[in-house]
Amino acid sequence: MTDVRAGSSGPAGAPGGTAEAARPAAVTGRAASPAASPDAAGPALAVSTTGLTKRFRGGQVAVDHIDLAVPRGSVYGFLGPNGSGKTTTIRMLLGLAFPTSGQAELLGVPMPQGAIQVLPHVGSLIEGPAFYPFLNGRDNLARCDAADRTADPRTAADRINTALDRVGLLAAAGKRYRNYSLGMKQRLAIAAGLLTPRQLIVLDEPTNGLDPQGTREVRGLIREIAADGITVFVSSHLLAEVEQVCSHVGVMRTGRLVFQGPLEELRRTGAARIRIETTDPAVAADVLRKIGLPDPQIAGDEVTAPLTDFSPERICADLVHAGVGVRGLGVVTPSLEELFVGLTGEGFDVDG
Ligand SMILES: Nc1ncnc2c1ncn2[C@@H]1O[C@H](COP(=O)(O)OP(=O)(O)OP(=O)(O)O)[C@@H](O)[C@H]1O
Ligand SMILES: [Mg+2]
Predict the structure, then answer these.
(1) Whose CA is nearest to atom 26 of ligand 1?
(2) Using CA of residue 206, residue 212, residue 217, residue 221, what is the dihedral sign?
(3) Residue 7: exposed, middle, or buried by beta-carbon count in 10 A (0-12, 13-18, 19+)?
(4) pLDDT by residue (tens digit) across 19-52?
C-alpha cells in the first residue's frame, strides 16, 4: 500500500492517518518565518543534508551521517539494497521522523522547522496506507485536495481531472480503490502528489511490485514530471529500474552514502581491464606481472588485469614477444550494474 504525503495537504483523515505529518511543526510549536518560503529561482539544491543520522531505539544506526546534495532540476536516483536506510532518510526529509543528529533542507528551507512553508511545494509518495479502500480514485483525490488549505475549492474538479489524466487513470477514476491493481494504486498516489504545482517530487520505490509494463509507465511519468522542470527524488533498490531516467545518483549501503554524483561520474569510476584469451594463461599472467600490471587473474583460458596506464598494443606486443599464444585481446569496462553491485555488495541477506 502507498501513503501519499502531499505536503501539508495530505489526506489528513485517511486510514493510517497523516496526523504525524503535521507533528514536527506542532511539536516544535513554532512556525518558520515567512522568509523561509522556498524561492522558485533558487537555491541550487532541492534537497541538502549534513551529517543526517537516525539511530533507532534498539541502537541500530539506520542512517549514518549522510550529506545529500540533490541539484534542482535533476532526477536523483536514491539507490540501495533493502534495509540500507532509504525510507528512513526520506521520512526525515519530509518531517515524518526526527533525525538523531544532523540537518536537512528542502528547497533551501530547514526541516522539520519549515515544514508548513515548504511541504505545499513538495509532492511525495512513501510506504504505508492512506487511501480509503471503499472510495473510488476520483473521490480519494477529492479528499486529498480538500485537505489542502492552499488549494482553491472552486477549481478542484479541474485539478483532479488533470492529475488523473496525467497518470492515465481517467478511465478508471470511478473504480473503488480496493479494486485497483498495484500499478493503479501507485499511479493514484503519484496523482495525489501532482494535484498542485510542485517544485520537488519525492517518490519512495514507485516501481515496487509493478510488472515491467508498469515500471516502464512510471519511468515515463517521471520523465514527464522532470520535463516540467520539477526536481524528482526517486528511491529504488534496483539501478536498472531508474538508470534510464536519472541524471544523478546517490548510493546507500548500510546507512552510509557510498557514492553521490552525476550518473556519468559513476560510469567513469569503472576502471578498464585488459582481457586476454590465450593458450598459455599462466605464462601470460607472468608477463603481465613482469611489465607491471597489478594482480592478474586467471579464469580458464582467460587472463584479466587492471589496464592502468598501459596501452593494449604494448601489452599485446609484450605477450607475443614472450611467445604467448594470443587468441583474443580486448579492453573491458564494468557495466553500471556491476559498479552498483560493487558499491552495495552482492548477496541475498538484507543489511542490518
Ligand atoms: N521504526 C523503526 N524502528 C527500528 N528500526 C527501524 C525502523 N524503521 C526502519 N528500521 C530499520 O532501519 C533500517 C533501514 O530501514 P529502511 O526502511 O530505511 O530501509 P530501506 O532502504 O527503505 O529498505 P527497503 O528497500 O526494504 O524499503 C532497517 O534495518 C530497518 O529494519
Ligand atoms: Mg524503503
Answers:
(1) 82
(2) positive
(3) buried
(4) 333 323 222 222 333 334 555 556 799 999 999 9
Instruction: Looking at the CA of 203, name the nearest ligand.
Output: 2
3-state SS class at 131: coil
Query: Would you say the CB of residue 82 lies under 6 angstroms from ligand 1?
Result: yes
Gap from CA of 82 to ligand 2 centroid (Å): 7
Cβ(220) – ligand 1 distance below 6 Å = no
CB of residue 98 inside a 6 A radius of ligand 1: no
DSSP 30: -
Domains of the chain as residue ranges with CATH? 2-262 (3.40.50.300), 271-333 (3.30.70.980)
Please give the distance, rounded to the nearest whole angstrom, from the Cα atom of residue 203 to the centre of ligand 1.
Answer: 16
Nearest CA, atom 1, ligand 1: 56
The predicted-structure confidence for 42-95, as pLDDT tens digits, reads as follows 679 999 999 999 999 888 999 999 999 999 999 999 999 989 999 999 999 999
For residue 143, pLDDT over 80 is answered with yes
Mean pLDDT of the chain: 84
CB of 192 closer than 8 Å to CB of 144 = yes
